[in-house]
Amino acid sequence: MAEHREFFYRRLHSLLGVIPIGVFLIQHLVVNHFAVYGEESFNKAAGFMHDLPFRLALEIVIIFLPILFHAILGVYIVFVAKNNTRRYGYFRNWMFYLQRVTGIVTFVFIAWHVWETRVQIGMGNAELDYNLMENILSNPFMFWFYIVGVISTTFHFANGLWSFMVSWGITQSPKSQKIATYATLVVFLAISYIGVRALIQFAYGV
């Protein structure tokens, strides 16, 4: 019974990592990318998301609760996982190891990002706009912290997408898994570019 429950939790963990968390990640990075087209474009895009009907309820149900479940179970998986990269240093074993490492980095990054852009704003009079992100990322330490955090997050999602397709029986043959590896690599590079490009715009205005 316990094994069936853990199997269910891990399947749910995998599913939530793609839907809705992965979908939200891409949407969030795309909104941030509007900064490349100027301060006004970003503020309009951010304002549209902020003014959505039932925004708080949607955020709690679709974003915060799934992320919390995914993070808690993910930390558990990290501590019980048996990594064999020294003995079996093949590609997928390293991807397995990096998935766990980036999971921890992503958890820390998201917690700080939410604190900095949501909690602190809620306690003060600041607004989540272009100027806020510009002020945060003008600090070189914070800029590189965000660079590492974004790349860690996009890798964790893209590699998790590969695992999702395997665990849900979408890619079963070695050939289909190899194709999925290239496809998720493209996903990783594409959304990493979108995220990093916005950070550069906020930090340096270019």
Automatic annotation (TrEMBL):
Coiled coil: none
Keywords: Heme, Iron, Membrane, Metal-binding, Transmembrane, Transmembrane helix
Top-level taxonomic group: Bacteria
Protein location: Membrane
Transmembrane segments: 12-36, 56-82, 94-115, 143-170, 182-204
SUPFAM superfamilies the record matches: Fumarate reductase respiratory complex transmembrane subunits
Protein name: Succinate dehydrogenase cytochrome b558 subunit
